Amino acid sequence: MDLIDKRVVLTGGASGIGAAVLRRLADKGARCVHVADQNQAALSALISKLSPQCDIQGATLDVTDREALTNWFNAADAAMGGIDIVINNAGIMSGPVEFPETPIAAMMKVIDVNLIAMMLGTRLAVELMHARGIEGVVINTASVAAFNAMPADPAYAASKAGIVNFTQSCAPLAQSHGVRVVAICPGVTDTAIVPHDAAWLKPALASVQFLTPDDIVDAMVRVIGESELTASYVRVDNQRL
Ligand SMILES: NC(=O)c1ccc[n+]([C@@H]2O[C@H](COP(=O)([O-])OP(=O)(O)OC[C@H]3O[C@@H](n4cnc5c(N)ncnc54)[C@H](O)[C@@H]3O)[C@@H](O)[C@H]2O)c1
Predict the structure, then answer these.
(1) Atom of ligand 1 nearest to the CA of 20
(2) Is 156 designated active site?
(3) How many domains does the chain have?
(4) How far apart are CA 43 and CA 15, in angstroms?
(5) Is this model's pTM higher than 0.85 or not?
(6) Which of 158, 177, 154, 179 is closest to 232 using CA atoms?
(7) What are phi and psi of 129, to 5 degrees?
(8) Rounded distance between C-alpha atoms, residue 72 and residue 135, angstroms
(9) Residue nearest to atom 8 of ligand 1 (CA)
(10) What whole-number distance in Å separates Cα of residue 217 and Cα of residue 179?
(11) What is the whole-number distance in angstroms between the Cα of residue 91 and the centre of ligand 1?
C-alpha cells in the first residue's frame, strides 16, 4: 500500500511528527486527510501552506473528549466513503514537574491522551474499516520510552508501554478483521514535546543525535507500504554520538 489516493485520519497533526506526516501525505498524493488537533491556530496555518491537490479537512478536537472523537471518526468515514489509514499520534508529557511531585491530574491526563484516546481511536478505526471490508492500517505513535525506565515521567513511559502492549494485543485483527495495527516507537525526536531544558534529560540529549520528524514519517510510510509486516511495533532508535 502506498499513499497515493489514500483516505487518512490523523490526530495531533498541527506540530512535530504529526505535521510532518500531514506534509508527506499532501506531497505524496493522498486523496483526503481528516486531521485533528487541539491547537486550531497551528493546524489552520499548516493546512493553508499544503498542496491543494489533497483534500485536507482540519478539526479542532481534544482527543480525550470521547464523544467528539467518536463523532469525528464517524464523520470522516462518511465524508471519505471509508478510511484506509489511521494514525493515532496526539501525545503529551506530564511535565514540567518531575515525579513524584507531578500532580495526579497531569498523570491522569497523560494516560487519557496517550493511551485511552489511542485505544478508542484504534477501536473506531478497526470497526469502521471492517464494516466496509477495507484492508486498512492503524499506526499508533508509541515511544522507545515504552521499553526504558523514565524516572522523571513514569506516567508517560507507562502510557507508551501500554500502547505497545495494546497494539501487540491487536495483532490478531489482521487475520480476523483484515486490519493491521502497528505501533511506531520513536527515539528522541526534535519536536515541541521534548523538554529541551530539563536537567534530567540533558545527559541523554548530550549522548544521542536527535531524530527528525521526517525520520519517523519514513518509518510510518514503510509500515504502510509493507503489507507483509507482521511486527506489532517498529523502533526508530537514535544514533549515539
Ligand atoms: N518527540 C519525541 O522525542 C517523541 C519520542 C517518542 C514518541 N513521541 C510521540 O510522538 C507523538 C507526537 O509528538 P511530537 O513529538 O510531534 O510532539 P508535538 O508536541 O510537536 O506534537 C503533539 C501534537 O499533539 C497535539 N495534542 C496534544 N494533546 C492533544 C489532545 N488532547 N487532543 C488533540 N491534540 C493534542 C498537540 O497540540 C501537538 O500538535 C506523541 O504521541 C509523542 O508522545 C515523540
Answers:
(1) 16
(2) yes
(3) 1
(4) 8
(5) yes
(6) 179
(7) -65, -45
(8) 21
(9) 143
(10) 20
(11) 4
| Pocket mutation for ligand 1, best pick of 47, 87, 159, 191 (most atoms within 8 Å of C-beta) | 191
Answer yes or no: is 1 within a domain. Answer: no
CB of 218 closer than 8 Å to CB of 186: no
Here the cell at position 235 is 523502533
**CATH code of 86's domain:** 3.40.50.720
Crossing angle between the packed helical segments 66-80 and 117-131, to the nearest 10 degrees? 30
Closest CA to 224 of 163, 120, 111, 138: 138
Nearest to 192 by CA among 61, 19, 21: 19
Answer whether 139 contacts ligand 1 (Cβ < 6 A). Answer: no
- Phi first, then psi: give them for residue 22, nearest 5 degrees: -60, -45
Q: How many CB atoms lie within 10 A of CB 206?
A: 8
User: In this structure, is residue 35 part of a structural domain?
Assistant: yes
- pLDDT, residue 231, reads 73
Range of the domain at 194: 7-236
Which pLDDT tens digits describe the chain residue by residue (241 residues)? 899 999 999 999 999 999 999 999 999 999 999 999 999 999 999 999 998 899 999 999 999 999 999 999 999 999 999 999 999 999 999 989 999 999 999 999 999 999 999 999 999 999 999 999 999 999 999 999 999 999 999 999 999 999 999 999 999 999 999 999 999 999 999 999 999 999 999 988 899 999 999 999 999 999 999 888 777 999 999 999 8
